[in-house]
């Protein structure tokens, strides 16, 4: 049992060293390229070796000084190289326990365990970077607050299992936003090292073999760049969501994903605050959606805006069946109440508003350089179309204790709220909305650090008050129950 102070596997020291080294890579590269003279390179390499050695020593000391144990209903951690620190985490405050395994951990048969609490801040409350898998399972059992857990582990049965298919994985990777991340990363790299890259030599080489005008050359180059970025995006998403599996046991969900880096997340059903369903512009016409869990607790490592992916890609028609097995408190209901027609022009104007800011610059550049620049004004009708699509989607529905909100920014989003999980609600009305008898409803749930909100704008004023009365009735019932007790 883990009642005596323990240290992580020595590999943890090396991982700590790599983490510190990674943060210094960009400064090292910058100094190497901008450093003055040949003498600087000698001193730079000598200094870099000293820094790397000190980081390695620090990583070893960090591993040696880091101990953990379970005592008096708490996970107790002591750490610190120069200043000794202690952190005591009561077991009842623990929200989720995540287990992952990167390349280095998998080589040595180890895993990384993260413990998160509702108020744990932007990072995980406790991170054990390298421990044995059996020890991680033992810790997870001890940190779960179930009674007679050992006996239940032997007798419990899997209620339902979901696993992504090869077809779904391919569609997921092909229609994801990963291409945007790849393009952003490549452009950031090019902006830093453009002067060292042989663009002119590349162009001259191509020109020798293919007689192309500069315009066609640029078009071909951009098309090739986008294709490579799309392919790399597919590869990244495939590696991330390969072997994606959701298993429900008793009142917990076990989510596992990853090919190279294997991750496992444990989420108690009682910690789920809302269900979010996203349909991007590509997947929506194909009838596919992604389902997220909004849960109490979280860290920056979660990604996806502090949300946890429950089903990466499913047919929209299959969502209710899956929810019924995995999170039976939530069901996807059709939105029955949409924003009124008088709100249409407000949505279209908001859609154009961002592009209107650039109109003076577009006109000025077109006047100075070329009339072709006036094509930039096409952004205005595009913004209007985007605003109209937001207007057509926005709406709400109430069925028993569930509130469904639906809206769009670029992707269509449907949020399923359980009444008792809504932390607060705002019923807002601006001066211009008041003249049109419109209003906005915004809900807040406990999620991550500061919570998370969802808003539907320009609802009919009467609809806002229906939602508000539904929510305040919940508060009255809670007050009556407390008074009776």
Describe this structure in words.
The protein is an alpha+beta fold. 45% of the residues lie in helices and 27% in strands. The chain contains 16 helices and 21 strands. It has helices at residues 11-34, 37-65, 103-107, 133-143, 149-155, 166-174, 178-193, 199-209, 214-241, 283-286, 319-326, 344-356, 359-368, 379-393, 431-436, 461-484; strands at residues 6-7, 67-71, 74-79, 85-90, 94-101, 110-117, 126-132, 160-163, 245-249, 252-257, 262-268, 272-279, 288-295, 308-315, 337-338, 395-399, 402-408, 412-418, 422-428, 438-445, 452-460. The strands form four sheets. It has a seven-stranded antiparallel beta sheet. The chain has a seven-stranded antiparallel beta sheet with strand order 14-13-12-18-17-16-15. The chain has a four-stranded antiparallel beta sheet with strand order 1-2-3-4. The protein is globular and about 65 Å long. The model is unreliable at 146-157, 192-196 and 478-485 (pLDDT under 50).
Return residue spans where pLDDT drops below 50 for at least 5 consecutive residues.
Answer: 146-157, 192-196, 478-485
Q: Let me know the average pLDDT.
A: 79
Alpha-carbon distance between the termini?
40 Å
Strand arrangement, major sheet: 7-6-5-11-10-9-8
Which range best describes the helical content: under 10%, 10-25%, 25-40%, 40-55%, 55-70% or over 70%?
Answer: 40-55%
Q: What's the shape?
A: globular
Structural category: alpha+beta
Rg over C-alpha atoms, rounded to the nearest angstrom: 27 Å
Number of strands: 21
Strand content: 25-35%
Major sheet attributes: 7 strands, antiparallel
Number of helices: 16
